[in-house]
Automatic annotation (TrEMBL), chain B:
Its EC number is 7.1.1.-. It is found in: Cell membrane. NDH-1 shuttles electrons from NADH, via FMN and iron-sulfur (Fe-S) centers, to quinones in the respiratory chain. The immediate electron acceptor for the enzyme in this species is believed to be a menaquinone. Couples the redox reaction to proton translocation (for every two electrons transferred, four hydrogen ions are translocated across the cytoplasmic membrane), and thus conserves the redox energy in a proton gradient. This is NADH-quinone oxidoreductase subunit C. It comes from Streptomyces finlayi. It is a peripheral membrane protein. One of its GO terms (molecular function) is NADH dehydrogenase (quinone) (non-electrogenic) activity.
Amino acid sequence: MTTPPSSASARETTEGTVYTVTGGDWDEVVQSAVKSDDERIIVNMGPQHPSTHGVLRLILEIDGETVTEARCGIGYLHTGIEKNLEFRNWTQGTTFVTRMDYLTPFFNETAYCLGVEKLLGITDQIPDRASIIRVLLMELNRLSSHLVCIATGGMELGATTIMIYGFRDRELILDAFELITGLRMNHAFVRPGGLAQDLPPGAMDKLHELLKTMRKNLPEYDKLATGNPIFKARMQDVGYLDLTGCMALGATGPVLRSAGLPHDLRKTDPYCGYETYDFEVPVADTCDSYGRFLIRLEEMRQSLDIVEQCLERLKKPGDVMVADKKIAWPAQLAIGADGLGNSLDHIKKIMGTSMEALIHHFKLVTEGFRVPAGQAYAAVESPKGELGVHVVSDGGTRPYRVHFRDPSFTNLQAMAAMCEGGQVADVIVAVASIDPVMGGVDR
Amino acid sequence: MSERDESATNGVPAPRDAGGEVLRTRKGMFGANNGGDTTGYGGLVRTVTFPGESSRPYGGWFDEVADELEGALEEQDLLPSNAIEKTVVDRGELTFHIAREHLLQVARTLRDDPALRFELCTGVSGVHYLEDKGRELHAVYHLRSLTHGRLIRLEVSAPDADPHVPSLVSVYPTNDWHEREAYDFFGLIFDGHPALTRIMMPDDWQGFPQRKDYPLGGIAVEYKGAQIPAPDQRRSYS
């Protein structure tokens, strides 16, 4: 490692490196501080500040009310998920990746699974029904993620009604997730090869009901915010980033679409059969926070349309896991006396009637499956932008390397370009319009 | 499309031994590397083979991109065979292995040439191949062309002893944080980066956590009366 360019002398001890900090040339520092403008101060916003979306630290140099320089400090939520994945088998990976961007668990899981399936060469064998349910869950997840974005973004402007409405509607979606997967968040429901299990009884009725409620509730945001003069005054021309800036900084998702480019991986590089669904990609040409808000609203409507098409297709029953017994996780989940576990039917089968099933179960649970050596990249359009996964296998039962290209991480780089030269209060609006989730940024 | 793609469609994973690159070998039948192997298959040796160099035609638009890139490099008086170490087509993806000294020029060409136009870089992913002697550290870039709707991969390697790779920030400013991340976790030094500092780990952290020789760590936990060892100490099968 190269030595850091610091003035502190360092020596190695058994306890680690010990730095000796002696008195610096403080007179010089004080003098330069006196010389500069009185109004120029450096403000640390966060990492513990409710309006910085989790543990994001913004370092702002302020001259009066104007931000002259803005920097992000990240890493406060780094949990080493990518490293941990290398010590678990391929199926266990979903349990980790679902916790990255915790507002978009289904996108993380699906992107990861698409990557693993590409490595296995089984992309074509994924049953239709599994893909449809993946799409259904992802689109509902897009709704819930956008709702949180709009809700927290509104709260940061002081619009508490939007916050209450947003979380109210998100709760309805999380209820549906709970019914389908057993959990409100961190589902680990999408697995390499398909899904953990099929929709439970009653899910279709519940989803139809949810669709109806959401269709009724969504226009409320329009009525509340879209034409609201205060809301517009705070959002318009704030967080400006034009197409050139977006391309250079690699911004994707609503940020890119607010600059007028209708780039959406669901259209340009479809996966999970998105090419067969009928939906629009909304764009705006304002390049600002208000445009991003409008895009999110419209995307929610489009998502509802896709969900409706999914429900129509789901009337036909089918498998939700690949037929290959050497990959498909055999067990079905059921709630027993001691909590969620393998269903009694499955245990009866493997212990009583099918030795082959027992062997497959044993091999998959203890070893996992092997994935041929090589690398693959899979990307999905998450609510925040391009969520890419680079998976590398060395032919073993565990990933050799998994890298997530999280859209929050990439888009957050645009913060400085959006905020410098603007007002302090507008920093909050700009950051909210990027919609960063620190779980995804730091991983 | 290539032979490999055809064989993938009938449900059988493509054969890995044909023309691949052997990285290392694995012993035993079940891949258990701690605890005694009582199966009698302990002497089995299998090779770990990564997809090797592909030959023309690559199939689909891959040939077009390769032709355009080679042509554009020739125009700049750079012999393509010097810049492109090898081209791999695997699982429907095109990978150019680039010599690190030419990475910047290749990336700029890929971005600016109208027939190539890879405008969007999705960042860099580091990979540490401990057994790939002399080229242990790999930096992998995925470039997306919105104009043509294409995706390619660039891969450069550097030895552990000299972990230098040119920075692509001047071509793709989005790589700023991505390169800091790869430096933080793999110790890849991106020459020309405006401020290559740690981004996730604390500034005074020692070592590079995602290298393969860096231990995961962790402590044993007790669950229902049994001791469960730390994740990297558990019995595992590779």
